[in-house]
């Protein structure tokens, strides 16, 4: 959860949220998500917050999720792993998956997202390298239409939810699961927009793509920032604290200064290949 950037803090004009976009002419302020994103009505959109672990979004983009939900956006959360390796005491080990699920649903409810909008794929935590791509599922593996693999699951959800915007942890993040999920989602965006694997649904348009920071800073200067009222920021901190089992997360939260209730994200381009036929 990075709290510093080259963006200037924008006063919170409506006691809830204010926004800033970094342009070629400098920071530009906005008082609503619709104004920030230059869209007529953000409430007509679907946003997907995709992550490896259940607490990644509340740490890296909780304020964005909260603002989207309050603006009427159809907000969904896609959690890739089951969190089985997130135990911090011996007593947690056997029940950590169940514990984290309960904490997760309570946390997102605090931010305005109903449990029906939280999608848990159930891939084994810290073992995502075993589920690259797509292959026939073996007994006991997460499966959709008889196949398993991150690309199989991501394509299915992208076609089902058809998001206008996709927010997920940066590929520069330290955690290997974060890097795997980001990379597998990139090719899944390509697959979901095409005709491959028709049993997973109709092709879906590629959404606008945004990176968020969880354990590290951004690989490039972030270009969007949200600033929240103290009340909203406190709610975000409480939503992080809802993961009571995650003692390492609590250590991270202690380094978040309460005087800086703002979070930046990085909007990035997703372009299909357009090879040139001659050298310049």
Q: Can you put this structure into words, describing what you see?
A:
With 280 residues, this protein is an alpha/beta fold. It is 30% helix and 21% strand. The protein contains seven helices and eleven strands. The protein has helices spanning 33-37, 56-70, 96-110, 150-161, 176-192, 230-241, 247-253; strands at 17-23, 26-30, 46-51, 74-81, 118-123, 135-136, 147-148, 165-169, 208-212, 224-228, 262-268. The strands form two sheets. It has a nine-stranded mixed beta sheet with strand order 2-1-10-11-9-8-3-4-5, with helices on both faces. It has a two-stranded antiparallel ribbon with strand order 6-7. Strand 1 (17-23) and strand 2 form a beta hairpin. Helix 2 packs across helix 6 (230-241), helix 3 runs antiparallel to helix 6 and helix 4 (150-161) packs across helix 5. The longest helix is centred in the middle third of the chain and has 17 residues, at 176-192. It is globular and about 55 Å long. The termini are far apart. Residues 2-6 and 8-14 have low confidence and may be disordered.
Derived from helix and strand composition plus strand pairing, the structural class reads: alpha/beta
What is the number of helical segments per DSSP (H or I, 4+ residues)?
A: 7
Order of helices and strands: EEHEHEHEEEHEHEEHHE
User: What is the averaged pLDDT score?
Assistant: 90
Q: How much of the residues is beta strand, in percent?
A: 15-25%
Percent helix = 25-40%
Tell me, briefly, the overall form.
Answer: globular
How many whole angstroms does the radius of gyration measure?
19 Å
Annotation, overall tally of beta strands: 11
Arrangement of strands in the largest sheet: 2-1-10-11-9-8-3-4-5
Please mark out the parts with pLDDT under 50 across 5 or more consecutive residues, or reply none. 2-6, 8-14
- End-to-end CA span: 42 Å
Main sheet makeup: 9 strands, mixed
């Amino acid at each position: 959860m990075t709290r510093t950037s080259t963006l200037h803090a924008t006063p919170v004009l409506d006691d809830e949220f204010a926004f800033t976009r970094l342009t070629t002419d400098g920071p530009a302020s906005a008082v609503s998500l619709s104004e920030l994103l230059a869209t007529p009505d953000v409430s007509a959109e679907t946003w997907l917050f995709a992550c490896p672990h259940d607490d990644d979004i509340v740490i890296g983009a909780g304020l964005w999720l909260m603002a989207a939900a309050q603006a009427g956006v159809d907000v969904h959360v896609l959690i890739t792993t089951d969190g089985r390796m997130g135990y911090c005491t011996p007593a947690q080990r056997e029940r950590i998956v169940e514990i984290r699920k309960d904490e997760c649903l309570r946390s997102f409810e605090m931010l305005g997202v109903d449990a029906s909008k939280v999608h848990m794929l159930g891939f084994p935590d810290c073992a995502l390298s075993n589920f690259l791509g797509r292959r026939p599922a073996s007994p006991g593996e997460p499966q959709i239409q008889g196949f398993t693999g991150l690309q199989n699951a991501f394509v299915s959800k992208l076609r089902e939810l058809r998001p206008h915007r996709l927010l997920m942890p940066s590929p520069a993040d330290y955690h290997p699961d974060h890097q795997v999920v980001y990379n597998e989602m990139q090719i899944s965006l390509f697959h979901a927009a095409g005709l491959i694997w028709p049993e997973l649904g109709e092709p879906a348009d590629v959404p606008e793509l945004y990176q968020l920071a969880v354990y590290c800073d951004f690989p490039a200067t972030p270009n969007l920032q949200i600033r929240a009222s103290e009340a909203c920021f406190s709610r975000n901190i409480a939503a992080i604290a809802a993961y009571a089992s995650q003692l390492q997360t609590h250590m991270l939260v202690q380094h978040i200064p309460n005087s800086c209730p703002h979070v930046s994200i990085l909007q990035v381009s997703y372009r299909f290949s357009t090879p040139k036929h001659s050298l310049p």
